[in-house]
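User: Here's a chain of 295 residues. Predict its fold as tokens.
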Amino acid sequence: MPGTDFTDLTEEDLAQLSAEERAFVESEREDGGDEPDEPEAGEGADADEGAADEPEQEGEPGAEAEDSPEPAAANALAPLTPVDADDEIARLNAERKTALDRTMNGDLDPEEYARIDAETLAKILEISQKKAADLAMQQITVQQMQADFDRQRTDTLAQLKALGLDVSDATVQADFTRLTAMFSNEAAERGVNDLPGNLANANYALKEAAALMQVRHSLTPKLAAAPPTPPKQGKREFDRSTIPPTLANVPAAAVPQVSGEFDHLNALASAGDYTSLERAVARLTPEQQQRWADQ
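Assistant: Prediction complete.
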């Protein structure tokens, strides 16, 4: 303990010390510990001044960091209300009360009190207006996000309905709502949240819930079965004499009678002409392809 004065210690004080502590005190007395250690005091003062300057130096980068919005909230409007709004309102009310007490005690002129009261009330009103504006903006944002979610949910249920699910059933709706909430919580635990204009959490939850509902209710869309690939055969010679030169010479019995909607497709399939069959199916509308696959 350099610079500590031990000359004021009495014999009773020394008697309460241990042997090591008394030896230390005696050594300090012999080394002139009662003399003020000015260089160290000066260094300590300089260090205190430097420490006092450090917060100001560190404050500048911190202020720049606050001015740079986070990427996730880059599109969000900055709130108008100061961070310490409630504390500031409490301070202004205390200032008004102090001014009133001074006026009642005769320490403050009524004109000065009126000025102080008007100024503090104006500041309180300004902060209150900012808080009201922020609250209104938050409500508008929440309502817009809720409307976007409701629209996406309706679209998802419409897709399930198109696959044959009775979405009007209360049990189905409750199941879908429960699954959506489950996947939403899962996404939130991974840090995926909804933001204004980007309902990342809702998009994921609705998509996963719809996929699971399809599996539970066997709603996998039916796809037209691809024709089997014919086995590869060696090249063979055609007897061209069996091919009529024109259709005019073909007997009536040789002309296939097409009466059904897909008889021409069935004829191509029976003949094994899968290339022509594939092209003919491709020219059908999606509704016709579904009907042909279901026949």
